[in-house]
Amino acid sequence: MRQVSLREESWPLRGVFRISRGSVTAITVVVVEIREGMAVGRGECRPYSRYGETPQAVIAEIEALMPALEAGMERDELNASIAPGAVRNAIDCALWDLSAKRTGQPVWQLAGLPPPKPLSTAFTLSVDTPRNLAAAAKKEAGRPLLKLKLAGGGDLDRVAAVRSNAPNARLIVDANEAWTVADYLALAPELARLGVEMLEQPFPSACDHWLATLQKPLPICADESCHAAASLKGLAGLYDAVNIKLDKAGGLTEALRMKSLAEGQGFKVMVGCMVATSLAMAPAFLLAQGAAYADIDGPLLLATDRRHGLKYDGSRVYPPSAELWG
After folding, report:
1. Right CATH number for 119-317 from 3.20.20.70, 3.20.20.120, 3.90.1170.40, 3.30.70.2210?
2. Which fold has domain 2-104?
3. Which tens digits make up the pLDDT trace of 29-41?
4. Fewer CB atoms inside 10 A, N or C side of the chain?
C-alpha cells in the first residue's frame, strides 16, 4: 500500500539573486514523498511564476493526483496524462527514486545509463552593477565556466567587467527574454569579441521568429522557449542549443527522451536548473552526463542545502548519495 505526502519548503539564498524579471532572497519548493513499505521516494519541484505556477496551485494539483498515485500510478501513466511542468517533475522524480529504493538499483542503472561521473557546473552571477560584478568575477575567477545574467541596458559594461576580472574563465550569458532586436544588433558582436561562447534566450519566447533573419556572431540557446520534447520542432533553424530543465520538461523521464532527440537533431544541450536544493539537482546531475553544458549550481546559491546534499568542490559536482536520491 502506498502513502503519498507533500510539503512546501522555503529556503533562503546567500544573498539577492537577480534576473531581468526581478529578484529573490528565498525560494519556495514543493517536495513529494511516496512511501511503499520501507521504501520512500522523493522528488522536488520549484513552482515558477513565469510559467503560471504557484506553490498553492502545484500542491492542489498533486493532492488531486494522490488517489491515483496511492493506487499504483507509475511513470508511463503519469507522463501520458499530466502536462509537462513542476507538478509532473516532482512526482516523476519521486517515482524514479522509489523504484531505486524498492529494487536496490540506482536510477542510472534502471534508466540504462552509464555510471555517472563527476562533472563541472557553470556558476551563475546574477544581474548587478558592473562594479559589483567585477568584484564577484574576481572572487570566482578560478571557476572554469561562469554564467552571467543580463537585463538589457548596461549589459556590455557588465560583460566587460566580468571578462576583465575572470580572464581565464569560459563565459556564457543569459538575457532571460530581456532584449530587443536593437539590443541584439548592438551587443551580440561585442559579446563574441569578448569571448562569450553562448547567448541564452535573448528575446521573449513569443518572438523566436526574430532570430530567423539575424546574423549569429555566437551560438544562441533556447530556455524559456524550450519546454518538453514537443517544443524542439519549433526551435529548429533558430537556435543552436537548448536548455533542458526538469521543471520545464516535467521530470527525468521526459528530459532523458528530450535530450536524446535534441542531440539527434543537432542541438547542443545545456542541462539547467531553477535555483533549488540538491534534491532537485540529483536527477539533473544524471541528465547532465555528457551534455555540452551543465548548469546545476542551484545549491551553491542557497544559504544552506538539505542533509546529504550533493558534494560540490568548487565547480566540480559529484554523484548523489542514495540517502539523497536515486
Report:
1. 3.20.20.120
2. Enolase-like; domain 1 (3.30.390)
3. 999 999 999 999 9
4. N
